[in-house]
From TrEMBL, chain A:
Species whose genome carries this gene: Actinacidiphila paucisporea
Protein name, per record: Multiple sugar transport system permease protein
GO biological process: transmembrane transport
Transmembrane segments: 34-56, 93-113, 125-149, 161-181, 202-224, 264-282
Membrane topology of this protein: Multi-pass membrane protein
Family annotation (PANTHER family): INNER MEMBRANE ABC TRANSPORTER PERMEASE PROTEIN YCJP, MALTOSE TRANSPORT SYSTEM PERMEASE-RELATED
ABC transmembrane type-1 domain residues: 90-282
Keyword match Transport: yes
Alphabetically ordered keywords of this record: Cell membrane, Membrane, Sugar transport, Transmembrane, Transmembrane helix, Transport
Subcellular location: Cell membrane
Entry GO CC: plasma membrane
Family in the record: Belongs to the binding-protein-dependent transport system permease family.
Automatic annotation (TrEMBL), chain B:
This protein's record includes keyword Transmembrane: yes
Stretch forming the signal peptide: none
Alphabetized UniProt keyword annotations: Cell membrane, Membrane, Transmembrane, Transmembrane helix, Transport
Name of protein: Carbohydrate ABC transporter membrane protein 1, CUT1 family
Mode of membrane association: Multi-pass membrane protein
GO terms, biological process: transmembrane transport
Annotated Gene Ontology cellular component terms: plasma membrane
Annotated organism of origin: Actinacidiphila paucisporea
Pfam family membership, one: BPD_transp_1
Length: 298, 303
């Protein structure tokens, strides 16, 4: 003890002398950390206002544009929970987006396999075309799509809209799926190949079971994108009874000018719930940055 | 194919390989068929229609008019207005707004306490996950004359405005920042994770302040992410329609009529399909240019 004591006393001295310096640096670091936390919280509060307003006004009987604390009522929800306003648009959306997502995911899996596994002169040009199409503004092709659909009598047809939604989501789906598939090691496949399995068997029995997380990410991503898509059904569908919920919000807003904001907020909440839940699944199970990592790596 | 067929007698095995190669590509077929019919087809149509005087009322009177639609567009004050507004919208809300705010949030969140970090990211991502029309409606309610923003300003004793009439383009820009910042934030958070901590610490030891560390160390390291992010948010913002249309419908007057909204109005409200398609083609070409820059950033591995 005595031996260790003496060097320690020697060391303490300069530390005491330096303490004021360390102290200010320490407080400055703490101060800046507090400042960071406070400013982020203030920012979040401001960011939260519109979302909070939606929740508040949906349970407010006299829906207004103010941020007020109401006596909660379920009246708005009761008023909109009927076939015309909520159930049918939600079901339409589910049919079109669900069908479109399934089609898109199946086609992406099939297309991703040769792109990920086989080498060919056409592979790179094809992948570049796919990547290029992910960037094209789909909004810009909607007028020709409309004219085309009019000519082949697909306008106002839910299957037609479903097909278009699937095709529009395909480039990103293929790209994402191919990147996930690249992560599945080749070794296992080669063993199966030697045992005489063909490409489809290998894909179904070996590759797919190893990349379910990736398939789920593509599925959820595609569905969220379609569910929120407003422009495509807005252009391609005409009959009110075929419109999905995304257009429903819009027609609701234009039909009831300045009134019934409570009901519209309630409808918005119901319409948003599926994508919020799906996003939570995505973030919980796979981590928020995971999907983006797959999308952005080259 | 014809070449391989002609050379077949001398190169039998090669032909077999070519057929095998084609067979291996069969799984691509469903995707290719869908893409050709529903994407390549419309794009080809877009190029064709843009040079006709097609109208919504019937295809019988459609004539080839050459560059008329384009010369008309560049003389059309409304079109020029739409181009300017699109520039303001893309630069203001994406390149400056979302990009800077996303980077700032990512940098600050690295230093923040864990609960604060999760609160911030939850709120920002929530705005992003909401469907476009819902975001448009919420932003409409936020900027409306009796809306939340004016209520807040009144509480702070600051002057209030009828935002959607006096500064509509600012309102839609802020709306797009509110809705889209999460994407940049996620990209930058992921990129900052990959910055080697030794580099930043070494700069700190050498006496670099926080700004210098950001400018001289962090940003150069993540510059590829910055470029990728800029390209992607530009492309997304370029084609925003639902958000603006729910908030203002391009109005008042044409003060928020960006190219997609202008294109829609011309084609469907004024029934000028040909003219609207010419505008769409301009939008498509601009998007294609950005898309080319973007794919040059992401390199596909050599065969």
């Amino acid at each position: 003890m005595a031996v260790t004591d003496s060097p320690r006393t020697v060391r303490v001295r300069p530390a005491v002398a330096r303490r004021p310096v360390i102290g200010t640096r320490h407080t400055r670091a703490t101060a800046s950390r507090v400042a960071v936390n406070v400013s982020l919280l203030a920012f979040s509060a401001l960011y939260l206002v519109p979302l909070l307003w939606m929740l508040l006004v949906s349970v407010n009987a006299h829906g207004s544009f103010r941020l007020s604390v109401p006596s909660p009522t379920g009246e708005n929800f009761r008023n909109i929970l009927n076939s015309d306003t909520t159930y049918r648009p939600m079901l339409n959306g589910l049919l079109m987006c669900g069908g479109g997502t399934m089609l898109c995911v199946v086609c992406s899996v099939l297309a991703a396999y040769p792109l990920s596994r086989f080498r060919s002169r056409l592979r790179r040009p094809f992948l570049y075309t796919i990547l290029f199409s992910t960037g094209l503004p789909i909004t810009a092709v909607m007028i020709p799509v409309y004219s085309m659909f009019v000519q082949v009598n697909l306008i106002d047809s839910m299957p037609g809209t479903t097909l278009f939604l699937a095709a529009a989501a395909l480039p990103f789906g293929i790209w994402l799926m191919k990147n996930f598939m690249d992560g599945v090691p080749l070794v296992l496949e080669e063993a199966a190949r030697i045992d005489g399995a063909n490409a489809m068997q290998v894909l179904w029995r070996i590759v797919l079971p190893l990349m379910w997380p990736g398939v789920i990410v593509v599925t959820i991503f595609t569905f969220i994108g379609m569910w929120g898509n407003f422009f495509v059904p807005f252009i391609l569908l005409l009959s009110p009874e075929k419109l999905p919920a995304s257009v429903g919000v819009f027609t609701f807003l234009s039909a009831h000018d300045q009134t019934q904001y409570g009901q519209l907020a309630a409808f918005s909440i119901i319409y948003s719930i599926p994508v919020v839940m799906l996003y939570l699944v995505l973030a919980r199970r796979l981590g928020g940055g995971f999907a983006l990592g797959g999308a952005l790596k080259g | 194919m014809t070449v391989t067929a002609a050379a077949a007698p001398t190169a039998g095995p090669r032909r077999g390989r070519a057929v095998g190669g084609l067979l291996r590509g069969v799984p691509l077929l469903p995707a290719v068929v869908l893409l050709v019919i529903f994407l390549a087809g419309p794009i080809a149509y877009c190029v064709y229609y843009a040079f006709t005087d097609m109208q919504l009322t019937g295809a019988s009177g459609t004539h080839f008019v050459g560059f008329d639609n384009f010369t008309r567009a560049f003389r059309d004050a409304d079109f020029v207005n739409a181009v300017e507004l699109t520039l303001v919208f893309v630069v203001g809300s994406a390149v400056i707004g979302q990009n800077t705010l996303g980077l700032a949030l990512a940098v600050l969140m690295e230093k923040a306490a864990k609960p604060v970090r999760s609160i911030t990211s939850t709120v920002v991502i929530a705005a992003w996950v909401l469907p476009e029309v819902v975001a448009g409606y919420l932003m409409y309610a936020f900027f409306f004359r009796q809306g939340s923003l004016n209520a807040i300003l009144r509480g702070l004793h600051l002057p209030q405005q009828n935002w959607l009439y006096t500064l509509p383009i600012l309102a839609v820009c802020i709306a797009n920042v509110w809705r889209g910042t999460a994407f940049s934030m996620l990209v930058y958070s992921a990129a900052l994770n990959d910055v080697p901590q030794e580099l930043v610490e070494a700069a700190e030891v050498d006496g670099a302040g926080p700004w210098q560390r950001l400018w001289r160390v962090t940003l150069p390291v993540i510059r590829r992410s910055v470029m990728t992010n800029l390209m992607l948010i530009t492309l997304q913002t370029l084609s925003v329609f639902g958000l603006i249309y729910t908030m203002t419908r391009g109005g008042p007057g044409n003060k928020t009529e960006t190219l997609p909204v202008f294109m829609y109005q011309q084609a469907f409200t004024s029934s000028l399909i040909g003219y609207g398609t010419a505008v769409a083609l301009v939008l498509l070409v601009v998007g294609a240019l950005f898309s080319v820059v973007y794919i040059r950033l992401l390199k596909i591995e050599e065969d």
